[in-house]
Amino acid sequence: MNYDILVVGGGIAGMESALILGDMGYKVLLVEKEASIGGKMILLSKVFPTLDCASCISTPKMAATINHPGITVLTYSQIREISRMDDGRFIVRLKKEATFVDFAACTGCGECELACTVAISDPFNYDLVASRSAHILYPQAVPKKAIIERPGSSPCSFTCPAGVKAHGYVSLVRSGKYEEAFHLHMEDAPLPGTLARACYAPCEDSCTRSDLEGAVSIRAIKRFMVDRYYKDHPEPEYGPPEKFFDKRIAIVGSGPAGLSAAYHLGKRGYPITIFEGAPQPGGMLRYGIPAYRLPDDIVDRDIKNITALGVEIKTKTRITSMKALKNEGFDAVFLAVGTNRTWKMKVPGEDLNGVMECMEFLTEANTGSIKDLSGKTVVVVGGGNSAIDPARMAVRMGAKSVVIMYRRSRNEMPAHDWEVKAALDEGIELQVLKTPKSFIGENGQLSKIEVLSMQLGEPDESGRRRPIPKKGSEFTLPVDLVILAIGLRPCTESFKDELEENRDETIKVNEETLETSMPSVFAGGDAVTGASMIVNAIGQGKRAAFYIHRYLQGESLDGITFDSRLPAVDKKEVIGRSSSISRREPIIMRELPPDERKQDFKEVECCISEEEARSGANRCLDCGVCSECNECIKACPADAINFTMRSEEQTHEISSVIVSTGFKLFDAHLKTSYGYGRYPNVVTAMQMDRILSPTRPYNAVLRPSDGKMPDNIAFVLCTGSRDHTLNNPLCSRVCCMYSIKQAQLTMGASPLADITIYYIDIRAFGKGYEEFYQQAKGMGTFFVKGRVSEIEQLDNSNLMLHYEDIESGEGPQTTEHDMVVLSVGLLPNIEALSLFKDNQLEADHYAYVKEVEEDINPGKTSIDGVFVAGTASAPRDIPDSILHAGSAAAQAAAYIERNRRSA
Amino acid sequence: MTVEIKRDLVEVMRDERVIRDSIINLLRNGPRTVIEIAETLKHPPHEVMIWVATMWRYGAIVETGKPDEEGYYKYQLNQ
């Protein structure tokens, strides 16, 4: 789109230039990086010397600007670059940041802010008070619309294969909203009880705290939230949908993938039938995971979350043909048969009685077919997590001796270290660098293993060091039972004539849509990915549900993205947001002592307490800022929250540019001798203006250390200005007068307060300024000529100022105050200098935008057609900024007209 | 009581999500000043000031009348 003028920055100067040019009939594009126009003026309490309300003056300008038919305002937008073309016009590329709020719908009611669970520092109030991730910038914001600060996904939520919003439920638990946390989890995954116990928690691996003293204990927090909810709600709170589609769906397998797909499709209103070959539903959850990790009653309660939707589960029904299912009238099938067989070792004696597959053993043990291993010697072969479970089961079944035999060293074991440790704690022996060479039996019954010792060679394709047999190292080991746990194999044999499979017998699918080679048949879970995590299978079921729904509704599956999460934020950036992060130890889930837990199948892990859950959740660093807890969505009466919104790049042609990017304030931390950032009662002038404002952060003029009304306040002028030691020799022009203004306002709020202004010299150069100064004196403000050298804090949080009183000639002095305001200087905003591509916007000696003909052409810069307005070119007070903005507007209009005439 | 800012303010502000319940419980027993809340909950008063200000901002608490002789307001739950 074409505009006559681009105004960069929506402060008082930018608004003034835009309004003048708009009134002249030019098409103006005003770009402001904050979520509201108004700049710094709107943050002020009052203006000097009239003491008019800053908001009262500013807001009509803001409203006029946004409502002007000739002005297009883009807030929350950043200029990428501006290029000057040969014809004297410009191309501007900008990025309109996503606000995640539909401005057309938002009424500015602020309900989202009240509901938001993430506290952030409030830049509008200069860190005196907290704001929320969902917020309206300030009460007079124009446009008065909420925005949600959401720079990216939190790593925990981004990592979860099922898309569970870990940050969201952690944030809700932190806020004491436990049921809301449970319901948020249920939006993405229906088996929270299972995941709270048996998930390997990739979210914790990616937690930013894991780079510090340890990850947030996300799974433990989930366990607390789920156990509490299930205790209060033994049955789901919902029932089947009111209406069902007339399309039937068959799901083969009732493991996590099948249950997840059934849940998500059931919620959409499809009639679902799950076919399960085993006597009870749950697949791997019930038969593959021992009860000491995942009790049956939790599996049962989790499954109720699915059956409550009217999903039918037909157990003891083994499906062997997809075609047969389709012939029964099912419109779509989801195949999720999992991996419940084990790969063979291909060593002699593998078929002996007494050599079992891992899943066969776990199933028989879990169903009670095998009950007692008293006096037996059991060897589990393998080094993964699937080897740990049967070994620990065997211990509980009374085995005399249990050995895990692994062909590499412990360092190479794929099992989680904590799983291995738990096994060792229970007395399981680990024999590494050993592998069975053959199984030896008598009368078909296993009696011994011929064991071969190994040594490690060079790394193989997996990156782990390859095990190499040691010649002549064979020995025999008496054994009663061998459990092979060397890798799980998909149960896809029945379908190999109907569906295309991969070499490892997994089903070949479109990785995005999970469609198989047979139309209307989808597949997912371990049968597709190979043995994986439960949460992965749940994610596959959710993905399949998304595409099956589209398929059944006749919608295209091409070019659609199921997973539209924002990229994860950079962890280093998250850590860099804070000046320091306190060490807070992770919450550890207690376990039953090894001797006690070995006795039976009682759950080993114990739930954390409410206090532990909340304090553990409060370790969260809010990496993505917004936690996606969705409370704002629920609270918004206008349905305006839109998390699918994305940033937008725009390109426009412009005839002329006005740079009105304003100024920066001196960072008072740099004046270390004044104690800002260490002493709570040392504040900056902008903080004081906020405290004095009608929209103040406190209920009155209070000091930040303890909420006391201050009665003896000092103002220290020239903090960070006229100071060569801080590389800013310039006078900021406004500090004297705004300090006098604040002194008068403070005396109005606290008539008995003593006010002292420490100054080098008072510069009251404008109309009415000298009178304003004299008025302050007349009101009783003390003026001390002398620079403050140091500020110390006393035991009562008061502050001792060290200074030299030049006029009295009494040399170094000290005076006690209960609050100190640092009148910080103005600094150039150097961001303006990098706006232009190819052309350099020149800076003056102090790094402000240079006015190349300041005396005769105010506002003209080093780039033809680019003009500067307001404090982007020098420190100015508000009237001067407005005058300067008028000049820049006139210059820009003249430039456009000259170009039009010469074109 | 001498106070010095030792913790990052963003971290202090995050804590409000948890501490607010303790403050609410305390104020159920009657209005308190920032200093009194800080002493009971054993947190630095300048941190309590941020939490109280945030709760006041969002309407959870209100000040009671005028400040006491020493210049401290008491805060109570917003009914």
What labels would you give this structure?
A: alpha/beta, 5-stranded parallel beta sheet, elongated, B: 79 residues, mainly alpha, Arc Repressor Mutant, subunit A, two-stranded antiparallel sheet
Beta-strand percent range of chain B: 5-15%
Number of E-type strands of chain A: 40
Name the strands of the widest sheet of chain B in spatial order: 1-2
Largest sheet: number of strands, sense, barrel closure of chain B: 2 strands, antiparallel
State the oligomer: heterodimer
The proportion of strand residues of chain A reads 15-25%
What is the terminal-to-terminal distance of chain B? 31 Å
The helical percent of chain B reads 40-55%
Helix content of chain A: 25-40%
CATH architecture assignment of chain B: Orthogonal Bundle
DSSP summary, beta strand count of chain B: 2
Distance between the termini of chain A: 20 Å
Overall pLDDT of chain A, averaged?
95
Q: Class by helix and strand content of chain A?
A: alpha/beta
Overall number of structural domains of chain B:
1
Topology of helices and strands:
The complex is a heterodimer of chains A (903) and B (79).
Chain A: E1 2-8, H1 12-24, E2 28-31, E3 46-47, E4 52-53, H2 54-67, E5 71-74, E6 77-84, E7 90-96, H3 111-115, E8 119-121, E9 130-132, E10 134-136, E11 146-148, H4 155-159, H5 166-174, H6 178-188, H7 192-198, H8 202-206, H9 218-232, E12 249-252, H10 256-268, E13 272-275, H11 284-288, H12 296-307, E14 312-314, H13 322-327, E15 332-335, E16 341-342, E17 355-357, H14 358-367, E18 377-381, H15 385-396, E19 401-406, H16 417-425, E20 429-432, E21 434-442, E22 445-459, E23 465-469, E24 475-478, E25 481-484, E26 488-489, E27 521-523, H17 526-529, H18 534-552, H19 571-576, H20 594-597, H21 610-617, H22 631-635, E28 648-659, E29 663-665, E30 682-684, H23 685-692, E31 712-719, H24 735-749, E32 754-759, H25 769-779, E33 782-785, E34 788-793, E35 799-804, E36 812-817, E37 819-824, E38 826-828, E39 836-837, E40 866-868, H26 878-902
Parallel strand pairs in A: 1-2, 1-28, 2-5, 6-39, 12-13, 12-15, 13-14, 15-27, 17-25, 18-19, 18-25, 19-20, 28-40, 30-37, 31-32, 31-37, 32-33
Antiparallel strand pairs in A: 3-4, 6-7, 7-28, 8-9, 10-11, 16-26, 21-22, 22-23, 22-24, 29-38, 34-35, 35-36
Chain B: H1 9-27, H2 34-41, H3 45-57, E1 61-63, E2 75-77
